[in-house]
Amino acid sequence: MPQIIRKDRIEEDGWTLLRPAADVEIATVELPATPILVPLALWQARREELLARATPVSVWLAANENPSAIADDLARLPLIAVDFPKFTDGRGYSIARSLRDRHGYRGEIRAIGDVQRDQLHYMRRCGFDAFAVRADHDIERALAGLKSFSDSYQAAVDEPLPLFRRRAQASGAAA
Amino acid sequence: MYRYDATDQRLVDERAAQFGDQMARHLAGELSADDLRPLRLQNGLYIQRHGPMLRIAIPYGALSATQLRKLADLTRRYDRGYGHFTTRQNLQLNWPKFEETPAIIGELASVQMHAIQTSGNCVRNVTTDQFAGVAPDEVADPRPYCELIRQWSTFHPEFAFLPRKFKIAVNAAQEDRALVLAHDVGLELVRDDAGEFGFRVFVGGGLGRTPILGKELCAFLPRRHLLSYLDAVLRVYNGHGRRDNAYKARIKILVQALGVEEFRRQVEEEWAIYRDGPLTVPDEEFDRLAAHFAPPAYQQVADAAGERGELDRLAAEDREFGRWLARCVHGHKVPGYAAVTLSLKKTGVAPGDINAEQMDVAAGLAERFSFGELRVSHEQNLVLADVRLPELPELWRSAREAELATANTGLLTDMICCPGGDLCSLANARSVPIAEAVQRRFTAEREHKLGDLSVNVSGCMNSCGHHHVASIGILGVDKRGEEWYQITLGGLPGREAKLGDVIGPSFRAEEVADVVEQLVAVHEENAQPGERFADTLARLGSTPFRERAYAGRGRHLAQERKPADAANNP
Q1: What interface predicted TM-score (ipTM) does this complex get?
Q2: Does residue B563 register a pLDDT over 60?
Q3: Contact status of B245 with chain A (Cβ, < 8 Å)
Q4: In this structure, what DSSP letter does residue A153 have?
């Protein structure tokens, strides 16, 4: 079973990611009996069928897809995956923030695709809490990427107060 | 200047360790060259024509004497004993060894320096007026706001992998010395009728391949909203900026495609989520930051007017000192003080280059004459911001010995110039030899008579040499493997920013200095008393200049007149 970083630990992952090729007809995609992560287009085309299954189903968003497209379904989706087509495509960071801050999503947000150790700190700050590290990278060593920095200037999902507010609180408490 | 607290220092130390680890993983074969690339770029490490180049951040151009000494030391031990100041107020080392860059970064951290986000598709070093805090024409010191932006942009988790680089500049003065209209976001500090500080926000400006001046996004943004608003601007850009074509990926292309009204609507929609939340900056934080930039312990100069008279007397006696006083000494808020430019534009030296000995001298001068601090200007010179008038002659003598007193600030030979084809792998043509050829045409006598005149050189259309906003701009283009140069005329920096127009077909390298001289001659022959080149050009129009530039060159000026892009399309 593939491994994943979830909540700062390495765990076995039971989800199957469906990534049909662009030229495959959505209606013909076969659905395995395991929990599945389906692309947005498949979710939209076969929503009733997917919800009727006894096994869990969730959605992954491509970098150019807007979380608003699944806003009404968020409550029934245990996880949302966000795809990074390449390391340098940073749209997924904003997608995660939008899911957390605009839509109030509290389920798992999982980074998939070109996910490497040196992104994990930023990803976690933006609301990701699970990381499917690229298969050719050592997942044990990638864990260290979550510990690159011990503090941050900005407000984000993991720390809602920017450093200037925490500094002010600390100096207020000291005074 | 801003001094790190324990958290600032820890973050910079952790960054140095992270970079060292990334490089070690790369050298051990665990991180491919492709995967390392975006990581090393965000630490200022390029691979250039002859090898690595390291761009060291100098946030908003502020440098202490201690830091400059350290830079001198680093150039001696890890490079070839010199560095190059850039138009983003940073310092480039041209010859570091790839494997030694983590050691350099580690040493920088020991003097509160780094190379964070000096390259890559992220928020870059924020820039401002080199006279910030002392300029008589500013509404307030912009540096506390720059520091706020520095902290907000440093390791911003959401915006480290934008479609393209993102540059922010802040101006707080009547005269815009920070080029805010030529930035992805330009911020102009203003006060409203109630006396509240805020920003006029411009978006979508930039030079480069598609030069565009910024458009007003917000007429008055109260300062407490600065960070939530910047977050909103960046979020819209991150989501919607083009990623399919690097040449069309800057925010200016997005703003142009959407129109500024639609862009503003999207920004305000995002802003609504965070506005008035924890990102709102309280007055206490502005006060805390401002305290870092409190005025130094100025000494009363008993008779400032008398001192000024004495300087004029010395200037009359010594023409060289007089020229320096006229060009390199600038007004100051505090009576009896002046700001001084240490020119890095001596003919024969690549513009913006400084050797290690000069760095040490400049650091010493800062300690003796200017409270131990310096600034880097976007024109690639150094500035001592707080010099007492009676000490100017002594400062001049010492600076002159170190060849830091070329009296040419704002004059023709004070050229902005990129490293060009000698060093940069993006360049289509060399720029430094062209700048030197032009400089050699003009004696000090002649350029002082000409007065303000900007001639800038870029070695390719990325326009690092700011040629678009020069009175005379020179752009290197590649034509079938040969170096050619396109001339633009009539650009202006600052508040009245204007992009120059291409005058016609491009010139061979050996023609450029002569063409510049001919253009200047048209001004000299026609100038009315007190007119600068830009004034004469505005009055006469470009035709007589263009005709003179092509006279006797066997080419008609209407021939193959193309926009800059056409000659160089990949």
Answers
A1: 0.96
A2: no
A3: no
A4: S
